Amino acid sequence: MQYRRFGRTELSMPVFSCGGMRYQYKWQDVSLQEIPSDSQANLEATICRSLELGINHIETARGYGTSEMQLGQILPTLPREKLIVQTKIAPAEDATDFRRTFDQSLSYLQLDYVDLLGLHGINTPELLDFSIRPGGCLDAALKLQKQGKVRFIGFSTHGSTKLIEQAIATDQFDYVNLHWYYINQINWSAIEAATQHDMGVFIISPSQKGGMLFTPPERLVELCAPLSPIVFNNLFCLTHPQVHTLSVGAAKPQDFDEHLKTLDYLDCASEMLPPILERLEQAAIARLGADWMETWHVGLPTPAETPGGLNIPVMLWLRNLSIAYDMVDYAKMRYNLLGQGDHWFPGATGDRLAALDLQPCLAQSPHADKIPQLLADTHELLSGQKVQRLSQQ
């Protein structure tokens, strides 16, 4: 395993982290007695495999159902000083509720402290306000830190780049969990801002949210060869020193195996990546056109600025992936989350597209004349059964 300094925390962070949202029994709390022995055995085997590999960062959240409770059956049996344990608590309007939820997490984990506490899902201006206002959740977290129950404080986010940068600019957080990978590089300026503040940078779900790379389309496999899409994406992320660790959402011990192959290529990434990056870029241009690929995102409105709350940037992005790389299954999964994911994946699908006048909100786009039809085509290609977030299933 390789390790990187996790910003001003000075923690030696493995370049892969063991994410805790896929090996738990249920997304809802149940009593410990209800958890099947095979589920618990699988979780413990996954943690043991993680530690064997040198992946000593175990990341979970109060919102991950029975994850904390099940981890609490194994973490206290392990050498505490060798572990980096992170949990995450959603910001609440009343900081007392935030503190109460943290106490429940610590009780489930059966630990005296966590190394990293993240304010989970600072995705909207309101949630940022709940976090950083006087007497808010950040103040509650700082009190926990003074009590020795938390070592370092950060935040996780699915919010806009602008909002992420606002949170970083407070200089009150030690690290950030955010999305950034090959198919979605929009948050790079936020990573640069985090680097300027010497914050740790944790990449959320690069293999699942980053393209469902465990089951990639054949076209993507061919374009990434001789690397697998997972290894390519990992290598792409880790060649940037500003990135410190990538989450591996392991559901079973074997889920680490493909990721480990990345380590063999880190020293020769400058030779391996350029031809793959060139192929991916040219493949997209061949199917979508150079002008579109360079300018499709320019002047697009946010859902709040769009009639019907339509999420035009996401719709066009998913269309691009579907056409350029045959990533239709991934695009369908993400598209049908629109309208179902609350602030975790905001905006609506094109269900009501025919009734909307989009021209005023598209005035700044160089492609305003053709985007309405492209959106209609996208809806026809990707619409289907609505998809719920994992935590709602």
Describe what this molecule looks like in 3D.
- The chain has 393 residues and is of the alpha/beta class.
- The protein has two domains: 3-267, TIM Barrel (Alpha-Beta Barrel), CATH 3.20.20.100; 290-392, no CATH class.
- Helices cover 39% and strands 11% of the residues.
- The protein contains 15 helices and ten strands.
- The chain has helices spanning 37-52, 67-71, 95-109, 125-132, 137-146, 161-169, 188-196, 218-224, 229-238, 257-260, 269-288, 290-295, 312-325, 328-335, 371-382; strands at residues 3-5, 12-14, 16-19, 57-59, 84-89, 114-120, 150-156, 175-178, 200-203, 245-248.
- The strands form two sheets. Strands 3-4-5-6-7-8-9-10 form an eight-stranded parallel barrel, surrounded by four helices. Strands 1-2 form a two-stranded antiparallel sheet.
- Strand 3 (16-19), helix 1 (37-52) and strand 4 (57-59) form a beta-alpha-beta unit.
- Helix 13 (312-325) packs antiparallel against helix 14 (328-335).
- It is globular and about 60 Å long.
- The model is unreliable at 387-393 (pLDDT under 50).
- Residues 21-209 form the NADP-dependent oxidoreductase domain.
- One of its GO terms (molecular function) is oxidoreductase activity.
- It comes from Stenomitos frigidus ULC18.
